[in-house]
Specification:
The chain is α+β, with helices and mostly antiparallel strands and about 260 residues long. The strands form 3 sheets. A 5-stranded mixed barrel has the order 4-5-6-12-11. The chain has a two-stranded antiparallel ribbon with strand order 2-3. It has a two-stranded antiparallel sheet with strand order 7-8.
Amino acid sequence: MPNTSLGPLVFYPSYCFGLSPTYRTWARLTATDVYALRSRTGFEGQNLYFYNNHPIRWVRLVGVIVAFDVYPNRITMTLDDSSGLNIEVFCKKDIRTVTPTIDTSVDAYGAIKLNRPLVQKDDEHVVTTSEGKVNLDCFNVGSVVKIKGGVSEFRGEKQVTLERIALVRTTNEEARAWAENSAFYQEVLCKPWVVNDRAQLRAKKRAVGLDKQREAKKGLKQRKRESAEKHERGLGTEQKRSRFGGDKTRATHDRLHVQARTR
């Protein structure tokens, strides 16, 4: 749980987040810790949360699957990590439809009879993540797993959106995972995140420089697009002139030819 005895915490601007030990890593948390994460004004809808003043986007959990529910467009697993609260892990399904077939026959009166209705199949346990497709066939209730994913909310409740999953096959492996959680808490989470003034200034300059580079690239693309459009308009004008000139030349030639014949 976040330490409330740390006193007033400093929340740094977003350009400092790259300096954080939690922003670009899988934060080793428990389900109780995930529920304790807090959002802040200005970061709504970004799936960015704070543990004390540590910015967190990605988490790693270790526990046993106590529920595995398959729905038409998703799979939800409920994870129990013995922290006092269970948490739901959301997985978006990869629905792959196949060409349906219809089994028909003709009855005694010559009417076509439908024996098997039109159906569509899907690969029940294949889910999609930002890193590709994951097959959950080997995971079920009772499996001890490591879950990695992003923190999100559904109907006001925290959940984890699956990115990676792995079986924990031995008690030694599980013990190592819990030791990693404990070390991450002691070395990172239980202390406030502090960025000195010089580091803040460097981060701000870097962010301003990146913004200028993005603006310069955007301006260059705009100028190239305008130049291309201008070139296309010029070609269109030249084609019109050429066509008009050709028409005028043909008309003059025809007139002279008629005059020559009448003489």
